[in-house]
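Changelog note: in this version the structure field was regenerated for every chain. One regenerated record is shown below for reference.
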Amino acid sequence: MSIEVRNLEAGYALKPILRDVSMRIEEGKICALLGRNGSGKTTLLRCLNALITPTQGQVYLRGQDIARLSRVEIARMVSVVPQSTSAPFNYPCLEVVLMGEAARLNLWSAPGEAARQRAKGVFKQIGIEHLLDHDYNGISGGEQQLVLLARALFQDTPYMLLDEPNSHLDFSNQHHMMSLMRQLAKQHGITMLITLHDPNLAVYYCDEIVLMQQGRLVCQGPTLEVLTDFNLCAIYGNNIQTDHTSRGMQVVVPKAIVMGAVEQTLVC
């Protein structure tokens, strides 16, 4: 159940974004997409969900070219947690999550009681039971992202695409979401591709890294093999490097912080 991308090129109107991108993510892996703003991360996710038609190349899910699949078939295989979204009508959060059942329902059908109970179980699993009856448009951006995560889990697909799922979350909920993602991926074999801005979240929670720059894939591989000083400087500039905490964990920090710590040690 791998995700495979072959020689992908895509963009918007006359503006090319992705250039000759090829990669493969194996079953059950959590892979982080890292790169500066405008590097093509979101565009790549849209291609993987067939929201954008590539000008060249193919995307394969479970060995099937998604260009040959219907929208319903794709929705049964891929769930998405977008950066943010607003509901056109002020639905209760439970109803927003139940929308994840749409690809499995017949026309004019509605989720039954079993589906509603399963959806409530997802709310409990994420720890947001208190939002069940709240209006989706009336809760905070961070709470909306947790509800969208609940919808993706309820959709029950082998692949999950998450576009900056932590952008509206506080520090505690960022780690709560990433920890939950890792747990679910390992328990259920879900293959996840997540765009992130913070390399440290990738260090702690992701199996693999894909580094992107100006629409090209620069490097892919196991997290600690990819997040080297050389690669980080190539992507983010010369003011970034890795350091190690007292517990031996690798972290990514501005060089000034590392140098400041060294200078302080020398003075003492």
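Spot check on this record: The CA atoms of residues 8 and 57 lie 4 Å apart. The longest strand covers residues 15-25.
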